[in-house]
Write a structure and sequence with these properties.
The chain is an all-alpha fold. It has helices spanning 24-35, 38-50, 54-82, 86-96, 104-140, 149-157, 160-180, 184-210, 214-222, 231-244, 251-256, 265-293, 304-315, 319-351, 357-378, 392-419, 422-428, 434-459; strands at 2-3, 20-21. The structure holds tryptophan.
Length: 463
Protein backbone atom coordinates (compact mmCIF):
# COMPACT_ATOMS: atom_id res chain seq x y z
CA UNK A 1 0.00 0.00 0.00
CA UNK A 2 2.95 2.27 0.56
CA UNK A 3 5.03 2.86 -2.50
CA UNK A 4 8.69 2.67 -1.74
CA UNK A 5 9.76 5.60 -3.85
CA UNK A 6 9.79 8.84 -1.99
CA UNK A 7 7.80 11.05 -4.24
CA UNK A 8 4.63 10.67 -6.23
CA UNK A 9 4.34 12.25 -9.67
CA UNK A 10 4.00 15.98 -9.45
CA UNK A 11 4.88 15.92 -5.79
CA UNK A 12 7.88 17.96 -4.88
CA UNK A 13 7.80 17.02 -1.21
CA UNK A 14 10.38 14.67 0.19
CA UNK A 15 9.13 11.99 2.52
CA UNK A 16 11.58 11.17 5.23
CA UNK A 17 12.55 7.55 4.82
CA UNK A 18 9.06 6.26 4.18
CA UNK A 19 6.75 5.76 1.29
CA UNK A 20 3.42 7.06 0.19
CA UNK A 21 -0.10 5.65 0.14
CA UNK A 22 -0.63 4.27 -3.34
CA UNK A 23 -3.93 6.09 -3.81
CA UNK A 24 -6.60 8.21 -2.23
CA UNK A 25 -8.55 5.02 -1.54
CA UNK A 26 -5.57 3.45 0.23
CA UNK A 27 -5.40 6.40 2.59
CA UNK A 28 -9.15 6.41 3.24
CA UNK A 29 -8.94 2.69 4.06
CA UNK A 30 -5.99 3.13 6.40
CA UNK A 31 -7.52 6.10 8.20
CA UNK A 32 -10.88 4.36 8.47
CA UNK A 33 -9.06 1.30 9.74
CA UNK A 34 -7.54 3.52 12.40
CA UNK A 35 -10.84 5.14 13.32
CA UNK A 36 -13.02 2.03 13.37
CA UNK A 37 -12.05 -0.19 16.26
CA UNK A 38 -12.85 -0.97 19.85
CA UNK A 39 -13.86 2.66 20.26
CA UNK A 40 -16.94 2.07 18.12
CA UNK A 41 -18.04 -1.37 19.23
CA UNK A 42 -16.71 -1.77 22.73
CA UNK A 43 -16.43 1.80 24.07
CA UNK A 44 -19.29 3.67 22.40
CA UNK A 45 -22.10 1.43 23.76
CA UNK A 46 -20.79 1.29 27.31
CA UNK A 47 -19.95 4.97 27.62
CA UNK A 48 -23.36 5.79 26.12
CA UNK A 49 -25.00 3.57 28.73
CA UNK A 50 -23.03 5.13 31.57
CA UNK A 51 -24.20 8.54 30.42
CA UNK A 52 -27.86 7.74 30.03
CA UNK A 53 -28.31 7.41 26.26
CA UNK A 54 -29.98 9.94 23.92
CA UNK A 55 -28.60 13.27 25.06
CA UNK A 56 -25.09 11.84 25.19
CA UNK A 57 -25.40 10.48 21.64
CA UNK A 58 -26.63 13.83 20.35
CA UNK A 59 -23.76 15.73 21.97
CA UNK A 60 -21.33 13.11 20.63
CA UNK A 61 -22.61 13.59 17.07
CA UNK A 62 -22.32 17.34 17.47
CA UNK A 63 -18.71 17.01 18.66
CA UNK A 64 -17.91 14.88 15.59
CA UNK A 65 -19.35 17.46 13.19
CA UNK A 66 -18.15 20.69 14.75
CA UNK A 67 -14.79 19.70 16.23
CA UNK A 68 -14.00 16.23 14.86
CA UNK A 69 -14.09 16.85 11.12
CA UNK A 70 -12.18 20.17 11.20
CA UNK A 71 -9.52 18.58 13.41
CA UNK A 72 -9.32 15.51 11.23
CA UNK A 73 -8.61 17.85 8.32
CA UNK A 74 -6.03 19.69 10.41
CA UNK A 75 -4.10 16.56 11.32
CA UNK A 76 -4.06 15.32 7.72
CA UNK A 77 -2.84 18.66 6.40
CA UNK A 78 -0.14 18.98 9.06
CA UNK A 79 1.13 15.52 8.27
CA UNK A 80 1.17 16.11 4.54
CA UNK A 81 2.76 19.54 4.82
CA UNK A 82 5.44 18.27 7.19
CA UNK A 83 6.12 14.86 5.60
CA UNK A 84 7.87 13.59 8.73
CA UNK A 85 6.87 11.93 11.98
CA UNK A 86 4.41 14.17 13.85
CA UNK A 87 7.05 15.44 16.28
CA UNK A 88 9.44 16.49 13.52
CA UNK A 89 6.66 17.72 11.23
CA UNK A 90 5.43 20.06 13.93
CA UNK A 91 8.94 21.33 14.57
CA UNK A 92 9.57 21.87 10.87
CA UNK A 93 6.25 23.57 10.19
CA UNK A 94 6.66 25.82 13.22
CA UNK A 95 10.07 26.91 11.98
CA UNK A 96 8.76 27.45 8.45
CA UNK A 97 6.02 29.59 9.96
CA UNK A 98 8.61 31.57 11.99
CA UNK A 99 7.35 30.20 15.29
CA UNK A 100 9.12 28.46 18.14
CA UNK A 101 10.28 24.87 17.64
CA UNK A 102 8.67 24.08 20.98
CA UNK A 103 5.42 23.31 19.15
CA UNK A 104 6.93 19.89 18.69
CA UNK A 105 5.83 19.12 22.25
CA UNK A 106 2.31 18.69 20.89
CA UNK A 107 3.81 15.70 19.10
CA UNK A 108 5.64 14.46 22.19
CA UNK A 109 2.37 14.63 24.13
CA UNK A 110 0.68 12.73 21.30
CA UNK A 111 3.19 9.91 21.33
CA UNK A 112 2.80 9.57 25.11
CA UNK A 113 -1.00 9.51 24.90
CA UNK A 114 -0.73 6.83 22.22
CA UNK A 115 1.37 4.74 24.58
CA UNK A 116 -1.14 5.15 27.42
CA UNK A 117 -4.16 4.32 25.27
CA UNK A 118 -2.49 1.43 23.51
CA UNK A 119 -1.75 -0.25 26.85
CA UNK A 120 -5.36 -0.73 27.95
CA UNK A 121 -6.51 -0.99 24.33
CA UNK A 122 -4.28 -4.04 23.93
CA UNK A 123 -5.77 -5.66 27.00
CA UNK A 124 -9.32 -5.23 25.68
CA UNK A 125 -8.24 -6.39 22.23
CA UNK A 126 -6.83 -9.41 24.07
CA UNK A 127 -10.34 -10.05 25.46
CA UNK A 128 -11.68 -10.18 21.91
CA UNK A 129 -8.98 -12.70 20.97
CA UNK A 130 -9.82 -14.80 24.03
CA UNK A 131 -13.50 -14.73 23.07
CA UNK A 132 -12.89 -15.75 19.48
CA UNK A 133 -10.75 -18.62 20.75
CA UNK A 134 -13.59 -19.62 23.06
CA UNK A 135 -16.17 -19.62 20.22
CA UNK A 136 -13.79 -21.54 17.99
CA UNK A 137 -13.72 -24.18 20.72
CA UNK A 138 -17.52 -24.17 20.85
CA UNK A 139 -17.73 -24.84 17.13
CA UNK A 140 -15.80 -28.07 17.59
CA UNK A 141 -17.24 -29.03 20.96
CA UNK A 142 -19.30 -32.20 21.13
CA UNK A 143 -21.22 -31.37 24.29
CA UNK A 144 -23.57 -28.35 24.34
CA UNK A 145 -21.67 -25.32 25.66
CA UNK A 146 -22.24 -24.17 29.22
CA UNK A 147 -23.94 -20.79 29.34
CA UNK A 148 -22.68 -18.35 31.94
CA UNK A 149 -21.61 -15.03 30.34
CA UNK A 150 -21.03 -13.17 33.61
CA UNK A 151 -19.05 -16.04 35.07
CA UNK A 152 -17.02 -16.48 31.94
CA UNK A 153 -16.07 -12.82 31.71
CA UNK A 154 -15.34 -12.68 35.42
CA UNK A 155 -13.15 -15.74 35.09
CA UNK A 156 -11.11 -14.15 32.33
CA UNK A 157 -10.58 -10.95 34.32
CA UNK A 158 -9.56 -12.91 37.40
CA UNK A 159 -6.73 -14.59 35.57
CA UNK A 160 -3.63 -12.40 35.09
CA UNK A 161 -1.95 -15.20 33.16
CA UNK A 162 -4.71 -15.41 30.53
CA UNK A 163 -4.95 -11.62 30.21
CA UNK A 164 -1.19 -11.30 29.76
CA UNK A 165 -1.10 -14.13 27.23
CA UNK A 166 -3.73 -12.54 24.97
CA UNK A 167 -2.48 -8.99 25.25
CA UNK A 168 1.05 -10.13 24.46
CA UNK A 169 -0.25 -11.85 21.33
CA UNK A 170 -2.04 -8.67 20.33
CA UNK A 171 0.97 -6.41 20.92
CA UNK A 172 3.17 -8.76 18.88
CA UNK A 173 0.70 -8.67 16.00
CA UNK A 174 0.59 -4.87 16.09
CA UNK A 175 4.28 -4.25 16.36
CA UNK A 176 4.81 -6.79 13.60
CA UNK A 177 2.86 -4.71 11.12
CA UNK A 178 4.41 -1.46 12.29
CA UNK A 179 7.92 -2.94 12.10
CA UNK A 180 7.45 -4.28 8.59
CA UNK A 181 5.88 -1.06 7.37
CA UNK A 182 2.20 -0.47 7.07
CA UNK A 183 2.08 -2.07 3.64
CA UNK A 184 -0.02 -4.80 2.02
CA UNK A 185 -1.20 -6.47 5.21
CA UNK A 186 -3.09 -3.49 6.46
CA UNK A 187 -4.69 -2.71 3.13
CA UNK A 188 -5.96 -6.25 2.71
CA UNK A 189 -7.25 -6.37 6.26
CA UNK A 190 -9.17 -3.18 5.82
CA UNK A 191 -10.45 -3.83 2.32
CA UNK A 192 -11.82 -7.33 2.97
CA UNK A 193 -12.27 -7.85 6.68
CA UNK A 194 -13.78 -4.51 7.62
CA UNK A 195 -16.72 -4.89 5.20
CA UNK A 196 -17.22 -8.34 6.74
CA UNK A 197 -17.34 -6.84 10.21
CA UNK A 198 -19.83 -4.30 8.90
CA UNK A 199 -21.99 -7.09 7.44
CA UNK A 200 -21.89 -9.04 10.72
CA UNK A 201 -22.87 -5.91 12.57
CA UNK A 202 -25.87 -5.57 10.24
CA UNK A 203 -26.85 -9.18 10.98
CA UNK A 204 -26.64 -8.37 14.70
CA UNK A 205 -28.85 -5.32 14.17
CA UNK A 206 -31.28 -7.61 12.31
CA UNK A 207 -31.21 -9.96 15.29
CA UNK A 208 -31.82 -6.97 17.56
CA UNK A 209 -34.91 -6.09 15.52
CA UNK A 210 -36.26 -9.60 16.03
CA UNK A 211 -36.09 -9.31 19.82
CA UNK A 212 -39.01 -6.92 20.03
CA UNK A 213 -36.88 -4.36 21.86
CA UNK A 214 -35.71 -2.42 18.85
CA UNK A 215 -38.20 0.40 19.35
CA UNK A 216 -37.02 0.86 22.91
CA UNK A 217 -33.41 0.90 21.69
CA UNK A 218 -34.09 3.62 19.13
CA UNK A 219 -35.74 5.83 21.71
CA UNK A 220 -32.98 5.05 24.22
CA UNK A 221 -30.31 6.11 21.72
CA UNK A 222 -32.02 9.01 20.06
CA UNK A 223 -34.49 10.71 22.37
CA UNK A 224 -32.47 13.10 24.46
CA UNK A 225 -33.20 13.75 28.09
CA UNK A 226 -31.16 16.83 28.86
CA UNK A 227 -31.89 16.70 32.56
CA UNK A 228 -29.17 14.04 32.79
CA UNK A 229 -26.53 16.21 31.13
CA UNK A 230 -23.80 17.91 33.12
CA UNK A 231 -20.26 19.08 32.37
CA UNK A 232 -18.89 15.62 32.79
CA UNK A 233 -21.37 14.13 30.27
CA UNK A 234 -20.20 16.64 27.69
CA UNK A 235 -16.56 15.90 28.49
CA UNK A 236 -17.20 12.18 28.04
CA UNK A 237 -18.94 12.81 24.70
CA UNK A 238 -16.05 14.96 23.55
CA UNK A 239 -13.52 12.37 24.71
CA UNK A 240 -15.43 9.62 22.92
CA UNK A 241 -15.51 11.69 19.70
CA UNK A 242 -11.74 12.12 19.85
CA UNK A 243 -11.17 8.49 20.75
CA UNK A 244 -13.38 7.18 17.98
CA UNK A 245 -11.90 9.39 15.26
CA UNK A 246 -8.34 8.70 16.48
CA UNK A 247 -7.83 12.41 17.09
CA UNK A 248 -5.72 14.38 19.53
CA UNK A 249 -2.61 12.19 19.62
CA UNK A 250 -1.22 12.87 16.12
CA UNK A 251 -1.96 9.35 14.84
CA UNK A 252 -3.80 10.72 11.82
CA UNK A 253 -0.99 13.25 11.38
CA UNK A 254 1.43 10.33 11.13
CA UNK A 255 -0.70 8.77 8.39
CA UNK A 256 -1.08 12.19 6.77
CA UNK A 257 2.67 12.23 6.10
CA UNK A 258 2.13 9.53 3.47
CA UNK A 259 -0.84 11.17 1.71
CA UNK A 260 -0.33 12.02 -1.97
CA UNK A 261 -0.62 15.65 -2.94
CA UNK A 262 -3.79 15.26 -5.03
CA UNK A 263 -6.02 13.88 -2.25
CA UNK A 264 -8.82 16.32 -1.35
CA UNK A 265 -8.56 16.63 2.43
CA UNK A 266 -12.05 17.97 3.20
CA UNK A 267 -14.02 15.30 1.42
CA UNK A 268 -11.71 12.56 2.66
CA UNK A 269 -12.11 13.65 6.28
CA UNK A 270 -15.90 13.71 5.93
CA UNK A 271 -15.90 10.19 4.47
CA UNK A 272 -13.81 8.84 7.34
CA UNK A 273 -16.01 10.50 9.95
CA UNK A 274 -19.17 9.19 8.32
CA UNK A 275 -17.93 5.60 8.19
CA UNK A 276 -16.74 5.77 11.80
CA UNK A 277 -19.97 7.24 13.13
CA UNK A 278 -22.04 4.76 11.12
CA UNK A 279 -20.28 1.81 12.74
CA UNK A 280 -20.69 3.24 16.24
CA UNK A 281 -24.42 3.87 15.80
CA UNK A 282 -24.94 0.38 14.32
CA UNK A 283 -23.08 -1.12 17.26
CA UNK A 284 -25.46 0.66 19.61
CA UNK A 285 -28.45 -0.61 17.65
CA UNK A 286 -27.08 -4.15 17.81
CA UNK A 287 -26.21 -4.25 21.49
CA UNK A 288 -29.00 -2.49 23.36
CA UNK A 289 -31.87 -4.71 22.14
CA UNK A 290 -29.97 -7.66 23.64
CA UNK A 291 -29.53 -5.77 26.90
CA UNK A 292 -33.23 -4.91 27.14
CA UNK A 293 -34.51 -8.29 25.94
CA UNK A 294 -32.54 -10.14 28.61
CA UNK A 295 -33.13 -7.66 31.40
CA UNK A 296 -29.39 -6.98 31.71
CA UNK A 297 -27.89 -3.89 33.30
CA UNK A 298 -26.87 -1.11 30.89
CA UNK A 299 -24.35 0.15 33.43
CA UNK A 300 -22.22 -2.97 33.00
CA UNK A 301 -19.16 -0.80 32.23
CA UNK A 302 -16.28 -1.96 30.06
CA UNK A 303 -17.62 -5.52 30.13
CA UNK A 304 -20.87 -4.56 28.38
CA UNK A 305 -20.38 -6.27 25.00
CA UNK A 306 -18.52 -9.21 26.52
CA UNK A 307 -21.42 -10.00 28.79
CA UNK A 308 -24.37 -9.12 26.54
CA UNK A 309 -23.39 -10.44 23.12
CA UNK A 310 -23.00 -14.03 24.37
CA UNK A 311 -26.75 -13.97 25.15
CA UNK A 312 -27.44 -13.31 21.47
CA UNK A 313 -24.94 -15.86 20.22
CA UNK A 314 -26.35 -18.52 22.54
CA UNK A 315 -29.83 -17.83 21.20
CA UNK A 316 -29.03 -17.66 17.45
CA UNK A 317 -28.70 -20.67 15.20
CA UNK A 318 -25.04 -21.10 14.31
CA UNK A 319 -24.34 -18.75 17.21
CA UNK A 320 -20.87 -20.18 17.79
CA UNK A 321 -19.90 -19.33 14.22
CA UNK A 322 -21.25 -15.83 14.57
CA UNK A 323 -19.54 -15.40 17.91
CA UNK A 324 -16.24 -16.57 16.51
CA UNK A 325 -16.53 -14.33 13.45
CA UNK A 326 -17.65 -11.31 15.38
CA UNK A 327 -14.91 -11.31 17.99
CA UNK A 328 -12.23 -12.22 15.50
CA UNK A 329 -13.21 -9.39 13.16
CA UNK A 330 -13.37 -7.05 16.13
CA UNK A 331 -9.82 -8.07 16.96
CA UNK A 332 -8.82 -7.22 13.39
CA UNK A 333 -10.51 -3.83 13.67
CA UNK A 334 -8.61 -3.25 16.91
CA UNK A 335 -5.42 -4.30 15.18
CA UNK A 336 -5.74 -1.73 12.38
CA UNK A 337 -6.38 0.88 15.09
CA UNK A 338 -3.51 -0.13 17.34
CA UNK A 339 -1.09 0.36 14.47
CA UNK A 340 -1.99 4.04 14.31
CA UNK A 341 -1.57 4.39 18.07
CA UNK A 342 2.00 3.13 17.71
CA UNK A 343 2.96 4.86 14.48
CA UNK A 344 3.78 8.37 15.82
CA UNK A 345 6.30 7.08 18.37
CA UNK A 346 7.79 4.51 16.01
CA UNK A 347 8.05 6.99 13.15
CA UNK A 348 9.80 9.48 15.42
CA UNK A 349 12.30 6.97 16.80
CA UNK A 350 13.10 5.55 13.39
CA UNK A 351 13.84 9.04 12.04
CA UNK A 352 16.73 9.28 14.44
CA UNK A 353 19.88 7.47 13.42
CA UNK A 354 19.86 5.26 16.47
CA UNK A 355 16.85 3.12 15.58
CA UNK A 356 15.71 1.08 12.66
CA UNK A 357 11.97 0.68 12.15
CA UNK A 358 12.15 -2.79 13.64
CA UNK A 359 14.04 -1.78 16.79
CA UNK A 360 11.79 1.26 17.22
CA UNK A 361 8.70 -0.95 17.04
CA UNK A 362 10.21 -3.35 19.57
CA UNK A 363 10.98 -0.54 22.02
CA UNK A 364 7.49 0.93 21.76
CA UNK A 365 5.91 -2.53 21.99
CA UNK A 366 7.91 -3.37 25.11
CA UNK A 367 7.04 -0.08 26.80
CA UNK A 368 3.37 -0.67 25.98
CA UNK A 369 3.51 -4.17 27.40
CA UNK A 370 4.92 -2.95 30.71
CA UNK A 371 2.22 -0.30 31.12
CA UNK A 372 -0.45 -2.82 30.11
CA UNK A 373 0.45 -4.93 33.14
CA UNK A 374 -1.01 -2.14 35.26
CA UNK A 375 -4.37 -2.57 33.54
CA UNK A 376 -4.19 -6.34 33.85
CA UNK A 377 -3.58 -6.21 37.60
CA UNK A 378 -6.28 -3.57 38.02
CA UNK A 379 -8.73 -6.31 36.96
CA UNK A 380 -7.68 -8.67 39.74
CA UNK A 381 -4.90 -8.38 42.32
CA UNK A 382 -4.95 -4.56 42.42
CA UNK A 383 -8.71 -4.15 42.04
CA UNK A 384 -8.98 -2.80 45.57
CA UNK A 385 -6.60 0.01 44.77
CA UNK A 386 -8.71 2.91 43.53
CA UNK A 387 -8.53 6.68 43.21
CA UNK A 388 -11.84 8.57 43.07
CA UNK A 389 -13.59 5.22 42.68
CA UNK A 390 -11.55 4.28 39.63
CA UNK A 391 -9.03 1.48 39.39
CA UNK A 392 -5.75 1.97 37.51
CA UNK A 393 -7.18 0.99 34.13
CA UNK A 394 -10.28 3.18 34.51
CA UNK A 395 -8.16 6.07 35.67
CA UNK A 396 -5.76 5.69 32.75
CA UNK A 397 -8.64 5.46 30.29
CA UNK A 398 -10.36 8.48 31.78
CA UNK A 399 -7.28 10.68 31.91
CA UNK A 400 -5.98 9.69 28.47
CA UNK A 401 -9.28 9.75 26.59
CA UNK A 402 -11.25 12.49 28.30
CA UNK A 403 -8.50 14.87 29.39
CA UNK A 404 -5.38 14.34 27.30
CA UNK A 405 -6.97 13.70 23.90
CA UNK A 406 -9.06 16.88 24.03
CA UNK A 407 -5.97 18.73 25.30
CA UNK A 408 -3.96 17.38 22.37
CA UNK A 409 -6.77 18.38 20.02
CA UNK A 410 -6.93 21.84 21.54
CA UNK A 411 -3.23 22.47 21.09
CA UNK A 412 -3.35 21.08 17.55
CA UNK A 413 -6.22 23.42 16.70
CA UNK A 414 -4.37 26.39 18.18
CA UNK A 415 -1.27 25.50 16.21
CA UNK A 416 -3.12 25.15 12.91
CA UNK A 417 -5.38 28.14 13.49
CA UNK A 418 -2.94 30.61 15.02
CA UNK A 419 0.67 29.59 14.50
CA UNK A 420 0.85 27.84 11.15
CA UNK A 421 1.54 30.01 8.13
CA UNK A 422 -1.72 30.71 6.26
CA UNK A 423 -0.01 30.02 2.97
CA UNK A 424 0.77 26.46 4.00
CA UNK A 425 -2.75 25.79 5.25
CA UNK A 426 -4.45 27.26 2.18
CA UNK A 427 -2.17 25.36 -0.15
CA UNK A 428 -2.96 22.05 1.55
CA UNK A 429 -6.68 22.78 1.39
CA UNK A 430 -6.54 24.18 -2.14
CA UNK A 431 -9.51 22.06 -3.23
CA UNK A 432 -11.84 23.89 -0.82
CA UNK A 433 -13.90 26.85 -2.04
CA UNK A 434 -13.11 30.11 -0.29
CA UNK A 435 -16.27 29.96 1.81
CA UNK A 436 -15.62 26.38 2.95
CA UNK A 437 -12.03 27.25 3.73
CA UNK A 438 -13.17 30.20 5.83
CA UNK A 439 -15.66 27.98 7.65
CA UNK A 440 -12.90 25.45 8.44
CA UNK A 441 -10.60 28.24 9.59
CA UNK A 442 -13.26 29.70 11.84
CA UNK A 443 -13.95 26.28 13.37
CA UNK A 444 -10.29 25.53 14.17
CA UNK A 445 -9.40 29.06 15.29
CA UNK A 446 -12.34 29.76 17.54
CA UNK A 447 -14.98 27.08 17.88
CA UNK A 448 -12.80 24.03 18.62
CA UNK A 449 -10.42 25.65 21.14
CA UNK A 450 -13.14 27.58 22.94
CA UNK A 451 -15.53 24.65 23.13
CA UNK A 452 -12.87 22.27 24.42
CA UNK A 453 -11.78 24.84 26.98
CA UNK A 454 -15.33 25.51 28.17
CA UNK A 455 -16.02 21.79 28.44
CA UNK A 456 -12.91 21.41 30.61
CA UNK A 457 -14.02 24.23 32.87
CA UNK A 458 -17.53 22.91 33.23
CA UNK A 459 -16.39 19.35 33.95
CA UNK A 460 -14.02 20.73 36.58
CA UNK A 461 -17.03 22.43 38.14
CA UNK A 462 -15.69 25.93 37.52
CA UNK A 463 -18.74 26.94 35.49
N1 LIG B 1 -10.13 5.13 16.99
C1 LIG B 1 -9.78 3.81 17.43
C2 LIG B 1 -11.02 3.12 17.90
O1 LIG B 1 -12.08 3.68 17.84
C3 LIG B 1 -8.71 3.82 18.48
C4 LIG B 1 -7.57 4.70 18.12
C5 LIG B 1 -6.69 4.52 17.11
C6 LIG B 1 -7.26 5.92 18.72
N2 LIG B 1 -5.84 5.59 17.05
C7 LIG B 1 -6.17 6.46 18.02
C8 LIG B 1 -7.83 6.61 19.78
C9 LIG B 1 -5.65 7.67 18.37
C10 LIG B 1 -7.28 7.83 20.13
C11 LIG B 1 -6.23 8.37 19.43
O2 LIG B 1 -10.97 2.01 18.34
Amino acid sequence: MLKTDNSSPGDGDQVSGHGMWSSKMAFILAATGSAVGLGNIWRFPYVTAENGGGAFVLIYLLCIAVIGIPLLMSEILLGRAGRHSPINSLKLLAQRSKRTWRWMFVGVLGALIGWMILSFYSMVAGWTLAYSWHYLGEIFATAPPAFDPQGKFGGLLASPGALIFWLTAFILLSLGVVALGVEKGLERAVRILMPMLFALLLIMVGYGMSTGFFQQTISYLFSPDFSKVDGNTILQALGQAFFSLSLGMTGIMAYGAYVPRDVPIGRTAATIALADTGVAVLAGMAIFPIVFANGLATGEGPGLIFVTLPYAFADMSYGSFFGFGFFLLLAVAAWTSAISLMEPAVAFLSESKRFTRVSAALVVGAATWVLALGSVFAMNIWSGFTIAGKNFQELLEYVASNLLLPLGGLTTAVFVGWALSRVIAREQLSELSESRYQLWRFLVRYVAPILVFVVFLSAAGVI
